[in-house]
């Protein structure tokens, strides 16, 4: 596995991150501690160094299992977790991105993870009822206290992230260095605003659900088995199934699995987009890790791009269609400078 720096930081991270939402059996479809140990070992042996979890995953069991498994090797890994989501539904202050929930959540995560610092703390989801100024200042305090090294944000509009980092830069606070977003051949919405913003602001992206909860692994196109599935066939659109069939066809042509094709597509366009590989078994993880050895032919990438293409919508589509009108014939003699 190869490495690159994360966002504008000097933090070295592996190509793929290990997702641990399945670590623990509290939600009825996860993995035992022993299976988690096998998966963590396989990921580390492949060269992976980023473990992604959250305080809410399997009601805290994911963090506890990770803390137990890492032990003395903790410093060799980039350990990331999240806060925002409630661990006590009866307490109105046990959720959200305000200072009180941040402090409590971080302290609890540190205990469960058996560590005294978190490498990357993600804001789990945008909280419209907490001023972004409060969140950014509170996160900066955590960094200055040494409990958190870097910060990122998940599941938020582009304008929120842009405003947050602008405020942080203006006031000398810690800025976000990464985004965690849903991205796959079936979910390309972030190409409208979030990916261009990430490119412009030098933010890395961690892509969750890169296999669309198994749909792009052939869950409904190669088999009807739904054991342990978190998604029903009725919830998948015909367009989604058509995209999955195209993935299957490319996989068959290349002699690889559908999962490997879908994950390789994530990496085909941007080296700074890191798929979060989540699995419930060692066999699933091993298959997914093999995608890192797969480089899709250009024709295959174009085929998948076309099958899953989305309309960018206004203003992107309008701007693109207006290029000749705006810039005139000189446009044909203009070469855009690349960074």
From TrEMBL:
- According to the entry, every stretch annotated as the NADP-dependent oxidoreductase domain falls at 18-308
Q: Which Pfam families match?
A: Aldo_ket_red
The molecule here is called Predicted oxidoreductase
Report the InterPro entries cross-referenced here.
AKR_Detox_Biosynth, NAD(P)_OxRdtase_dom_sf, NADP_OxRdtase_dom
Show the GO cellular component annotation of the record: cytosol
A molecular function annotated in GO for this UniProt entry is: oxidoreductase activity
Keyword field: Oxidoreductase
